[in-house]
Amino acid sequence: MYSACLLGTLWARQEKDRLRHGLCSQQAQCTRPACNGWHDLGLVFCQPNGKPLHDNNLRQRDVRRICEKLGLSWRRTLHNLRHAHGSYLIQRGVSVKIVQERLGHSSPAFTLTVYTHVLAGMQEQATRAISEMLRDTKKAARG
Fold first, then answer.
1. Which of 135, 82, 72 is nearest to 111 (CA)?
2. Does residue 30 have a pLDDT over 60?
3. What count of other Cβ atoms lies within 10 Å of the Cβ of residue 115?
4. Over the stretch 77-120, which tens digit does the pLDDT of each residue have?
5. Residue-wise burial string across 23-41, b where 16 or more C-beta atoms lie within 10 A, e elsewhere
6. Cα(37)–Cα(21) distance, rounded to whole angstroms?
7. C-beta of residue 117 within 8 angstroms of C-beta of residue 123
8. pTM of this prediction?
9. How far apart are CA 138 and CA 143, in angstroms?
10. How many angstroms separate the first and last alpha carbons of the chain?
11. Is the sign of the CA dihedral 121, 125, 128, 134 positive or negative?
12. Residue ranges covered by each domain of the chain
């Protein structure tokens, strides 16, 4: 029997592979001789000519349009998504080392400094967990 975590990981890999296959199929169409100037750099997300996306174009053209439709501020959206990703991972108990690597921080210490607001909530959670354990131990000793 597979754990929910393992099944989630397998599903995520399948989805990533499916997405990559679809994008590669689209890119393969552009590598035909009719497409002049195709740069095969092996990128999944790229410009129509195969070159890397420019963050300013992505922000101005794509993210801005989506955020305006949703009524959200678009100026710091990519940074906010990145920060939300890190906060969520730490809150879910992912190793700080893994979070540091995913976010590209220079050290786990820097990651801990940035995400101390998440850790404060985790202290309360740890206190509750220990209190519950002590209550359960006390009940078991009586019973």
1. 82
2. no
3. 22
4. 778 888 888 988 988 889 999 999 999 999 999 998 888 887 77
5. eeeebeeeeeeeeeebeee
6. 22
7. no
8. 0.49
9. 9
10. 34
11. negative
12. 1-47
Query: 22: buried, middle or exposed (CB in 10 Å: 19+, 13-18, 0-12)?
Result: exposed
Which pairs with CB-CB distance under 8 Å and at least 24 residues apart come from 104-112?
Answer: 111/86
Q: Token pair of 26, please?
A: 């689209």
Look up residue 133 and give its amino acid. Answer: M
Which among 12, 44, 14, 13 has a CA at the least distance from the CA of 27?
Answer: 44
For 129, the token pair is 């967990």
The residue length of the chain stands at 143
